[in-house]
Amino acid sequence: MAIHVQHGLRGRTGDEDARFCARLAAGLDVPFCFWPVDVATGRRKGESLEAAARRLRYEALLALAAQTGAGTVVATGHTLDDQAETVLLNLHRRAGRTRGGIRSRRRDGVVRPLLPFTRAEIRAFLALRNVPWREDETNENERLLRNRIRRRELPALEAASPGTAARLARAGAAWTARLDELDRRIDAALGAVGAPLGGPWPRGAVTGLGPEGAARLLVRAAGERGAVPGRVQVACAVARLLRGDAPLAESFAGLRISADAHAVRLARGASRP
């Protein structure tokens, strides 16, 4: 089954994309689902428009997978170029090693089968078979950092040193493997004390993870709520937790982190330890 998630942000062009996808699916004899989402209304406080669209898109994809039946996976079209861009994007944000790259398979069943291939290779494959495609014109908006990386930085790096994109993609995969191992340690520690990923967590369990593990726990827990904390913000919160500051209560990427001598909590809105 093919699904097109309509974000409602691009007007007539977005409608034309939806009709194109429906025609393509019909021509390939593939069942088609059109799923509109209201990004403007569903956007959370402090959440960027891009982050809200991504969150709602994946919610739609996973909801359809759940309706389709057990064992259904969601396949997206991320490429090797997307992987390289993500690595550069995270480096710009000074969060490269704490974010990793794009995973070929996520825990929720999302898979990226095209990750080993470049966009050029995929376009050539489609052209050879006379399969049409559409380009999203918002990818030309260089006010967005990812688009500047895509249109300027990565091509310049590739021209200066051919193979840069592939090397960045390998680095992203290596960082991701390292984070996966760290996540396994975090999950084991939480399982040992019966604490969920979203918290609350015994303070001793958090500090027992050390600086890197505690930081990764906060990033993951915030990510479950659609928040993306900055590196400095995470480092500050972890330092206060490991130093033993109590009580602790401060904003955290649009959320609220609080702690006393016994527990650490991460929640939306105002919170007291």
What is the CATH homologous superfamily assignment of the largest domain? Answer: HUPs
- Strand arrangement within the widest β-sheet reads 5-8-7-6
Helical coverage, percent range: 40-55%
DSSP helix count? Answer: 11
Overall mean pLDDT score?
A: 90
- Tell me the CATH architecture of the largest domain: 3-Layer(aba) Sandwich
Strand content: 5-15%
Q: Count the strands? A: 8
| Contiguous runs where pLDDT drops below 50 for at least 5 residues | none
Number of domains: 3
Topology as H/E string? EHEHHEHHEHHHEHHHEEE
Looking at CATH, which topology of the largest domain would you report?
A: Rossmann fold
Describe the structure.
With 273 residues, the chain is of the alpha/beta class. The chain folds into three domains: 1-72; 76-194, Rossmann fold (3-Layer(aba) Sandwich); 195-273. It is built from eleven helices and eight strands. The protein has helices at residues 11-27, 39-42, 49-68, 80-92, 96-99, 119-128, 145-160, 164-193, 203-207, 210-224, 231-243; strands spanning 2-6, 32-36, 74-75, 110-111, 201-202, 248-252, 255-259, 263-268. The strands form three sheets. Strands 5-8-7-6 form a four-stranded antiparallel β-sheet. It has a two-stranded parallel ribbon with strand order 1-2. A two-stranded parallel sheet has the order 3-4. Helix 4 (80-92) crosses helix 7 (145-160), helix 8 packs across helix 10 (210-224) and helix 10 (210-224) crosses helix 11 (231-243). The model has no long low-confidence stretch (mean pLDDT 90).
